[in-house]
TrEMBL record:
Keyword annotations from UniProtKB, A to Z: Membrane, Transmembrane, Transmembrane helix
Source species of the chain: Thalassotalea litorea
Organismal lineage: Bacteria, Pseudomonadati, Pseudomonadota, Gammaproteobacteria, Alteromonadales
InterPro entries for this protein: DUF1963, YwqG-like_sf
Transmembrane segments: 69-89
UniProt name for this protein: DUF1963 domain-containing protein
One protein family per Pfam: DUF1963
Length: 96
């Protein structure tokens, strides 16, 4: 591959399925404590998409800008035709 193209690349995460027990998943309910405030838009609760446990996905600190602890929770407010996300909300949760 062209070296100029490769030089533009950035480290990224690739999500894959696993048979191991994990705290990173899509769907279901987020693993949060009692003080968690569910995100809302226009006074309506957002739909939960999934969560990533940073201790599991960045334990080796391979992506320097991504914290090594906490969870990233993904929410969605609305859908438009053809399943395209209209609005999404990312909520970092620390100390879990």
């Amino acid at each position: 591959m062209n070296e100029k193209v490769l030089a533009l690349g950035e480290k990224c995460l690739r999500l894959v399925t696993s048979n191991k027990s994990t705290s990173s998943f899509l769907g279901g309910k987020p693993l949060v404590g009692g003080q968690f405030e569910w995100p809302r838009k226009n006074d309506k609760p957002l739909g939960f998409i999934g969560q990533l446990d940073l201790k599991e996905i960045n334990s080796e600190k391979e992506i320097d800008w991504l914290p090594q602890v906490g969870r990233l929770l993904f929410f969605i407010a609305e859908f438009i035709p053809f399943g395209i996300i209209y609005y999404w909300y990312l909520k970092p949760v620390y100390g879990i």
